[in-house]
Amino acid sequence: MTQKDEFHNIDNPGDGLFRELAAGVTTRIFSGEQAMLSVVTLAPHAQGALHHHPEEQWGVLLDGSAIRVQGDEEVPVKKGDFWRTPGNVPHTMRAGPDGARVLDIFSPPRPEYKKAGTGFGTT
C-alpha cells in the first residue's frame, strides 16, 4: 500500500468499496484498522432495512433530508445534523423527497462491510 492509497474523495463515485444495501440505497466503504467510513446515498424516499450490529456508529447528513429511525424514535434530520448510534440499537434511514447522502463512521470496522456485496449484514 502506498501513501496515495490513504487519500480519497467523498464525491468520487468510483472511490471505495461499493455495496448495495437496499433498493435505492448504496454505499462506498473505506476501511482502516480501527475505524470505517461509509458514504451512503439514498434515492428520494428510499429506506434501508431496520438492522443492528455490535459496532458503534456515528452519522452525519451531508446532503438532502431524512428521518433517522433509531430504537423507538423517528427523528427528522437536515444537512449538517449528526448522531451517535450505540452498538446493538436497531436503526435505519428514510430519505426525504430529494434523497439523502450520509457519512457513517463505524468503530471498530464492520467485518461484513470489508467486502463488496449486498445487504446490511446483520439484522
From TrEMBL:
Gene3D superfamilies cross-referenced by the UniProt entry: Jelly Rolls
Disordered, as annotated region: 78-123
Domain of life, per lineage: Bacteria
Entries under Pfam families matching the protein: Cupin_2
Residue stretches making up the Cupin type-2 domain: 39-106
InterPro entries on file: Bacilysin_H2HPP_isomerase, Cupin_2, RmlC-like_jellyroll, RmlC_Cupin_sf
PANTHER family in UniProt: H2HPP ISOMERASE
Protein name: Cupin domain-containing protein
Species in which this protein is naturally found: Bradyrhizobium vignae
